[in-house]
Amino acid sequence: MSTDSVYKVIELVGTSETSWEDAAMQAVQAAKGSLHALRIGEVKAMDLKINENGDVVAYRVKLDVSFKLDA
Predict the structure, then answer these.
(1) Nearest CA-CA partner of 2 in 71, 53, 50, 55
(2) From CA 34, how far away is CA 57, in angstroms rounded?
(3) What pairs with residue 47 in β-bridges?
(4) pTM beyond cutoff 0.85
(5) The three-state (H, E, C) secondary structure of 28-42, written as one string
């Protein structure tokens, strides 16, 4: 039996009106609906949307997520 594995990495973008952490969770929750064997998430960038009044109205996280490919 081999312990070798192959993983694919994709970029996800999650958004939230609450926080960067919630934005990351939203992305992972959406991905787990169509992907299985999710392994690692690595945040690559965080930004936010500011309205014309200078208020933060949305948080956005770009993250790479890996998942195991079926053998």
Answers:
(1) 71
(2) 28
(3) 60
(4) no
(5) HHHHHCCCCCEEEEE
**How many whole angstroms separate alpha carbon 4 and alpha carbon 54?**
51
Distances (CA, A) of 34 to 53, 54, 70: 38, 37, 14
For 18-30, what is each residue's pLDDT tens digit?
Answer: 999 999 999 999 9
Q: Give the C-alpha distances (Å, rounded to integers) separating 70 from 11, 23, 35, 41.
A: 19, 28, 11, 19
Three-state secondary-structure class, residue 21? helix
Q: Which residues of 31-43 are buried (b: 16+ CB within 10 A; e: fewer)?
A: beeebeeeeebee
Give the chain's end-to-end CA distance (angstroms, integer).
Answer: 12
Q: What sections of 1-71 are H helices per DSSP?
A: 20-32
Q: Helix count (H) and strand count (E) of the chain?
A: 1, 3
